[in-house]
């Protein structure tokens, strides 16, 4: 009986081991770079099923992790936003193109800003989002708009900037802007900030 149980456990272990893949193999399947996957694991709430190794080179994925990471990458690439707001935002292409270069936690702020651009469009004015980035822990948005509404768009840009300083750029929860020694300025909820600081020092 013990022999049978041991054989079953051994077969299970072999099956689990054959189901594992390296970080680089997972990156190829997910069409993502290794740095992005490591960042998700460090500051996000999505981690591979096997215990996460301290050295990123030793991180492994199970086959079942792929779909969860696909969904997370879709969120981080703002794919739903791009579909819903194609009338006010089209991603740049070509050399030197800039995109939405910030965490997915600010998506609601982005949507609110673009809803405002739609109002200007409905009134007959040119108003489009070009690109955006995180700089010193805050959201910076860049637009193409008619001169007549530039000041109004600027006001809404300022509102988005202010909200980003109180919103975690990773998950969207209430957060606070912080600057600490050996760390880049950031706006993250407390549970994520220590992992961010550790990453920033490397």
Quote the beta fraction: 15-25%
Encode the helix/strand succession as letters.
HEHHEHHEHEEHEEH
Number of strands: 7
What would the principal axes of the Cα set say about the shape? elongated
- Straight-line distance between termini: 52 Å
Biggest sheet features: 3 strands, mixed
| Spatial extent as radius of gyration | 21 Å
The helical percent reads 40-55%
Strand-pairing-aware structural class: alpha+beta
Q: pLDDT average, as an integer?
A: 83
**Residue ranges: pLDDT <50 for 5 or more in a row?**
194-202
Query: Please, how many helices?
Result: 8
Numbering strands along the chain, what is their spatial order in the largest sheet?
3-4-5
Spell out the key features of this protein:
3-stranded mixed beta sheet, 15% strand, disordered C terminus, elongated, 202 residues, alpha+beta
Describe the structure.
The chain is of the alpha+beta class. The protein is 46% helix and 15% strand. The protein contains 8 helices and 7 strands. The protein has helices spanning 2-18, 23-30, 34-43, 65-76, 79-84, 107-122, 150-164, 193-200, and strands at 20-22, 60-62, 100-101, 127-135, 138-145, 176-178, 186-188. The strands form 3 sheets. The chain has a 3-stranded mixed sheet with strand order 3-4-5. A two-stranded antiparallel ribbon has the order 1-2. Helix 6 packs antiparallel against helix 7 (150-164). It is elongated and about 80 Å long. 23% of the residues are buried. Residues 194-202 have low confidence and may be disordered.
């Amino acid at each position: 009986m013990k022999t049978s149980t041991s054989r079953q456990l051994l077969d299970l272990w072999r099956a689990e081991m054959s189901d594992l893949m390296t970080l680089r193999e997972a990156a190829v399947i997910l069409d993502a770079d290794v740095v992005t996957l490591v960042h998700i694991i460090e500051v996000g709430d999505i981690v591979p099923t096997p215990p996460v190794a301290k050295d990123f080179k030793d991180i492994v994925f199970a086959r079942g992790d792929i779909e969860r990471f696909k969904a997370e990458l879709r969120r981080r690439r703002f794919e739903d936003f791009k579909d819903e707001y194609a009338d006010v935002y089209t991603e740049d292409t070509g050399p030197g193109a800039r995109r939405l270069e910030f965490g997915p936690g600010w998506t609601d702020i982005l949507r609110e800003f673009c809803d405002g651009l739609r109002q200007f469009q409905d009134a007959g004015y040119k108003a489009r989002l070009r690109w955006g980035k995180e700089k010193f822990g805050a959201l910076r948005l860049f637009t193409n708009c008619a001169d007549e509404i530039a000041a109004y768009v600027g006001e809404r840009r300022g509102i988005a900037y202010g909200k980003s300083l109180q919103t975690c750029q990773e998950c969207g929860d209430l957060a606070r802007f912080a600057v600490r020694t050996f760390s880049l300025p950031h706006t993250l909820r407390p549970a994520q900030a220590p992992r961010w600081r550790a990453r920033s020092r490397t």
